[in-house]
Amino acid sequence: MKQYFSFQWHITDECDQRCKHCYIFSEDNCKKLDAMTWEQIQQTFYNCLDFCKVYDRFPYFYLTGGDPILHPNFWKLLALMKEHQIPFTILGNPFHLNDETCRRMKEYGCEKYQLSLDGMRKTHDWFRKPGSFDITLEKIDCLRRAGIRSVIMTTVSGTNIDEIPDIIDIVVAHDADVFAFARYCPTSEEKEVGITPLRYRSLLEECDRKFKMYEAQRCHTYFNKKDHLWTLYEYETGQFQIPKNAQDGMVYGGCNCGNCHMTILPTGDLYACRRVQNSKVGNAFTDRIAEVWVCQMETYRGYTKFEKCAKCELLPWCRGCPAVASGQTGNFYAADPQCWKEIAM
After folding, report:
1. CATH number at residue 180
2. Nearest-5° Cα angle at 151, 280 to 208
């Protein structure tokens, strides 16, 4: 069966915000803002299609930045996507969305638009930009009118972890199509995110109760359990069981890094994962992605190298978040800092 391969494609660094947990500005607040030229966009696009042809995959693009809509060739790229009948999701800001913009994006094939809520109003506006909390919620209706599914994504840290249940309530109240959260990955000198393993498990337990309550009420919002530690939680609570026909050495789920995902930056740099800061594996302007995949990317497929996960029966399904581990320790294969399972190391 033919599988999808996802490219998280950052076409520009240009952005209306300077979020406190942004990867782009975390290491160097004075960095040059990069953006692809139209020629580089075309070159990268066809490089991706070549990869998918070689490995018999369906391409799926997550277009982002910065804010991709600020790129001068944003609409030309969407037209190129439509020409090749390729579906895509946009990860961007709410500020330039209106009925006409959303209608055009839908016309070109945009399936989903991801917005961020990183706390309730005071916390979110502190993280991102004053007023952006209310604007984000307003744009859910704008996307719905155009037929684009709205995705609300939250980055969880020690600063906002207590507000996640309230965020769920407000997302449901505004009829967002999808809600998910992932953990903050340390990107600067501050490596402690302020979440103990048991505190994180407690959050999952509280969210699980809320998800079930809203699902019983047949609410519109779909809850995407994005963090792979959900697998551990559901295993412990009997909601996930290891299949009896599972084969040794097979990988069935967990982190997509090294499996069916790659990130492309505005410089053309290819990353195994955008959240893993030292994971550059090549450049889309100079390297054939199909060759990078079988050579440099092999570094991220050493499943027996996981220091803790390799000793766990959930290795083929979980592996936590290697990006969080890498951000804290510099080691992709280190133990997930929020994994609460006790395993003899």
Report:
1. 3.20.20.70
2. 100
Residue 344 belongs to a domain:
no
pLDDT tens per residue across span 75-132: 999 999 999 999 999 999 999 999 999 999 999 999 999 999 999 999 999 988 899 9
| Nearest-angstrom CA–CA distance, 55 and 322 | 25
Domain ranges, residue 263 = 4-303
Which residues of the chain have a pLDDT value below 70? 18-31, 187-192, 345
**What is the tally of structural domains in the chain?**
1
Cβ pair 325, 336 in contact under 8 A: yes
pLDDT 10s digits, 121-158: 999 999 888 999 999 999 999 999 999 999 999 999 99
| 338 part of a folded domain | no
């309550």: which residue's tokens?
Answer: 213
Amino acid type, 216:
A
Largest CA distance in the chain: 57
> Is 308 a member of any domain?
no
- Quickly list H helices, the chain: 23-26, 38-54, 74-83, 99-108, 121-127, 132-146, 164-173, 197-216, 229-236, 289-294, 322-329
Question: Is 253 a domain residue?
Answer: yes
The two three-digit tokens of residue 305, written as one number: 């190298």
Rounded Cα gap, residues 334 and 345, in angstroms: 11
> For 203-237, b where at least 16 C-beta lie within 10 A, e where not — what string?
bbeebbeebeebeeeeeebebebebbbbbbbbbee
Residue pLDDT, tens place only, 15-30:
887 665 555 555 554 5
Cβ atoms of 150 and 143 within 8 Å: the answer is yes
Q: Tell me the C-alpha to C-alpha distance, in Å, between residue 63 and each of 40, 70, 293, 308.
A: 15, 12, 20, 34
